[in-house]
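Appendix B. Chain record.
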Amino acid sequence: MRSRLFPLLLVALAWPVTLPALAMETGVAEAVQRLQSRWAEIRYTLPADRQADAYARLAEAADKALAAHPDAAELHVWAGIVRATQAGASGGLGALSLVKQARAQLEAALALDPLALDGAAYTSLGALYYQAPGWPLSFGDDDRAEHYLRRGLAVNPGGLDSLFFWGDYLHEQGRDEQARRVLRQALDASPRPGRERADAGRREEIRHLLAELDH
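Structure tokens predicted for this chain:
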């Protein structure tokens, strides 16, 4: 496995809340929306050298929301996503601790509700497992990555992010023809109301990866 943890986790995951939010209590839905919105703002508008500190503050906000709603799987998902992106923005060995924290949050989300946010915890864990360094530095594992990514696709087969990370994983495995098909399918994914900034950024990342594959 070739680790790309620190650069790739900067793109992380931005999941829709519109339909799943209907099943959330108001306080949880509002907290998730704030976290998602701020995540996209940091990722797509802040200079790279300011992102690590911004993600650290967002992680604190996620922890606060979790303290008020400890059984909300959606907030555990977002606490994990934010810490993963914080690790990507920070880099270095210190990021490995953040990645372990992210995994713990995502596993907690799965224990509470594996279908929360369209199965986002599955895809997030899959991304962590193929991007993280392997033993002895960290827990990276391609087999586990594929297991979780496939589970995420089973829950959300047409999702922009689930397809993007599956396509990127296939590329990492040298399965480029499959990767191209999946990434083109991702470009046709339905837009997510209220997630316009995240959608635009993700589609640009997909186009960039497709361009890499075509050279």
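Further analysis of this model is presented in Appendix C.
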